[in-house]
Amino acid sequence: MTALGIALLMVGAIVIIIETHTPSLGILGGPGVIALAAGTVLAIDGLGGGLVAALVAAVILTICSVTVLGLTLKHGSAVRMRRVKTGSEGFIGRMGVVRSWNDGSGRVLVDGALWSAHHSWHDDGEDVIREGDRVVVERLSGLTLAVRKAEQWEQIT
Predict the structure, then answer these.
(1) Global confidence as pTM
(2) Which of 71, 84, 111, 157 could be stapled to 89 by a disulfide with Cβ–Cβ 3.0 to 4.6 Å?
(3) What is the tens place of the pLDDT at every residue in 67-76?
(4) Are residues 10 and 36 both part of a single domain?
(5) How many domains does the chain have?
């Protein structure tokens, strides 16, 4: 029983450590906590510590493990909700100023860099982009931005 308890303790600890480094939303951590609790009871009882001492140790270890698992899940989900700030996905939603524009394409200044840009959808006459207009980046294709004219509420900074 002692060997099985120690094996369960090791497996539970390893699974919880894996949970902290992979985004599995508690699928690995839950069984890890159960393995830790069962391993504690089996190891302490197998060593002659008594059932009461084994249950107390298992409850304490379970509370600690659930706390660590909860914090890991909380901080992991907070990281997922953050907006991407780098790479091509980081440009989406950024504001820029049109430096030159002709026939649906031109040059746009975004974050201090001058980019080639084109209108993100067909000009229908009411959303004409001119020099000096504020635009919003819709997507990035290679080194060309697809932009649309910023609406009034987006221009408030």
Answers:
(1) 0.50
(2) 84
(3) 887 887 788 7
(4) yes
(5) 2
